[in-house]
Prior knowledge:
Blueprint: H1 2-13, H2 19-33, H3 37-49, H4 54-70, H5 74-86, H6 95-105, H7 110-123, H8 128-142, E1 152-156, E2 166-171, E3 178-183, E4 203-208, E5 219-220, E6 230-237, E7 242-248, E8 259-266, E9 269-270, E10 274-275, E11 288-293, E12 299-304, E13 314-321, E14 326-327, E15 331-332, E16 343-348, E17 354-358, E18 368-372, E19 385-386, E20 397-404, E21 407-412, E22 422-428, E23 433-439, E24 452-457, E25 462-466, E26 472-475, E27 477-479, E28 482-483, E29 490-497, E30 500-508, E31 516-522, E32 527-530
Parallel strand pairs: 23-31
Antiparallel strand pairs: 1-22, 2-3, 3-4, 4-5, 6-7, 7-8, 8-9, 8-10, 11-12, 12-13, 13-14, 13-15, 16-17, 17-18, 18-19, 20-21, 21-22, 23-26, 24-25, 24-29, 27-28, 29-30, 31-32
Helix pairs in contact: 1-2, 2-3, 3-4, 4-5, 5-6, 6-7, 7-8
Amino acid sequence: MKTKLILLVLFIGTCNLSFSQKDHFKDAEIAFYNEKFVTAIDSYKKAEVRTKSAQVKGEINFKIALCYAQMLDIAQAEVYLERAEKLKFKSKEPKLVLRMAEVLMQQGEYENAAELFQEYLKLIPDDKWTKTKLKSCEIQMTNPMLPDESRYIFQGEIQLNSDFYDYSSSFADKKQNTLLFASTRPGSTGDDLDDRTGQSFSDIWMTTRDNKGKWAEPVLLPEEINTPHNEGTPAMVEKEDRLYFTRCNVIPKENIGCSIYYSERKGNRWTIAEEISLKPEGADSLSCGHPTLNKNGDLMIFAADLPSGFGGKDLWITHYDKKEKSWKTPINLGPTINTIGDDVFPYLDEDNNLYYSSNGRIGLGGLDLYKALATEEEDVWEEPELLPAPLNSCRDDFGILLESENRGFLSSNRSGGKGMDDLYSFNLKQIKITSECYVLSKENGEPIPYANIVLTSSDQEIYEVTANENGYFKFDEVNKMKRYFDQEKNYSFVVSAPAHAEASSKISTIGLETSKKFYRGVCSFPYSQAY
């Protein structure tokens, strides 16, 4: 089927070319189809020099723009789309309008992008992809999600980022001081360059953090894991000391898709990585990658273009069969999670909540990060919600990793970074929430000494304390590492004292963006004052 398709593309694309032009155009089309974008761009440019036809030049510039878009060079993609438009290629290929709209959207130019999405919908009225993108632009035009309104501290990891692709991290120890990540920086295994990016092939690197938070110079993982091909998206299962990752082998004249591999750590050594069988028999050209596992290591979610999907790449789930010592046949996560676009880079937190990136939902631009809460039903998640800015931007945001509930890392190719993809850290701003509690008598308003106070959070974290001789207790710090009150939770007080009825009161920290002190007076009936 693939051979038939490429022959058809070549036949259509070369009808108006001379023999010398045909050779370069043919080489370019084959390279583009096989995702060798560097070679494709070079061949397209050679074909353009040898033609005087405005129509052919328009097509060539459009194809070059597609190459740059795949290489994540949005600025160059826009340059060549504009050239194709000036050559009036839009009349032959309406998707020029769509691609220009997408490029503008990924640069935050929502109003201009919306106009082009509307123009394209006049040509293709039922296009779901375009409708989703237009809706996203309209939301950002009327109610923009602005980073300066966020409560997150967000910064690039300057000690880790290079001028190249640095992305997709995973902790490799329980203390979360050893970090694995993928990079195309110099020093990788092998001397060849990846024809898809023009950079070194991606490898997995490791770094450690000292007690001052400084990262050491990253080191390359050994040849048991890294090869002259592409390795990336590491996912460490600490319980098993096992590393899962994606490998994309490059074999001349063969179309081999990516696969998921694993290696076990034994002391300071790693076993030779082995492929996990997840593809249907005879489907080597399909790709599986981006693994994430639960803390027990017996459930895996990954991205793939397996048959019966909903769009480009979907998220799939599989369970480990201990009896058979193999992974079961993957099951698609369904339309609640997957879209007509690409749904990729999944991550499971400690509670099996699912984070992932998608370009097929209402969002800000390219790939956006979403969170789907786990349900009580096995392998079922709630409707995903878009994460706030600055975790998301108008560019690609993916590869999230949580260090705690409110802090972690992600990858992005947003403007202002050091390289193509960069690693960023985020931390919910720590605001101080305290409460002064007074236990009073209903009868005369006098303090009740040494009353018992039980503070319970909405996630069932319980603290039991005793008021002083004046019926007073200040909820501030449990210890130097922990406060009584966290953000985004509900709390209840229950007070008991001899000869007095039990009483209660409530506090909510949901939505607080600045520090706050609550006052609570409680006994038979509570009263409250807050500022």
